[in-house]
Amino acid sequence: MYFSKIYSNGHNKEFQKEFKTAYKSWVCDIAKERTVYVTRPIPEIGINVPNTLARNIMFEREAKEVKIPLEDYQHRGQLVWEAQNEAVTMCGVKILNPLPYLCDKQYCYGSKNGRPLYFHDDHLSEYGNQFLIPLFKKVF
Questions:
Q1: Count of domains for the chain
Q2: In whole angstroms, what is the distance from residue 37 CA to residue 24 CA?
Q3: Which domain does 65 fall in, by range?
Q4: pLDDT tens per residue across span 62-103
Q5: By three-state DSSP, how is residue 33 classified?
Q6: What is the pTM of this model?
Q7: Which residues on adjacent β-strands are paired with residue 67?
Q8: Inside any domain, residue 30
Q9: Closest by Cα among 67, 23, 28 to 45
Q10: pLDDT tens digits along 27-46
Q11: Nearest-5° angle of CA 85, CA 90, CA 138?
Q12: Does a structural domain hold residue 120?
């Protein structure tokens, strides 16, 4: 993703500054006319959750939940969280946080009770989407 020029990676400080500026400009422009809700990033598991669960069953591996450490999620999403927090202060954007529904104090889960929450590695399945219904009920 880029705005004015292509950067080699998202860790470039110039890119991060440009991302935050563009993000805040975009959401705050919309917030001038209506209430804006943004969702914190959904955890990206990094592996194909259904395939991993299926392989574990096929090869009779121990049935463990697919998960990532919460710190990995926090590190990966830090830039977006910072931009969102600044938009809250700048123009009153409202935050919807999916973490209490997908994570605990140590892990973000890609599966629950052996069922995949994700269609692959970073898009929630129909089953996974159901865990966020209480989050969105707060708005609707």
A1: 1
A2: 13
A3: 13-137
A4: 668 899 999 999 999 999 999 999 999 999 999 999 999 999
A5: coil
A6: 0.87
A7: 109
A8: yes
A9: 67
A10: 999 999 999 999 999 999 99
A11: 60
A12: yes
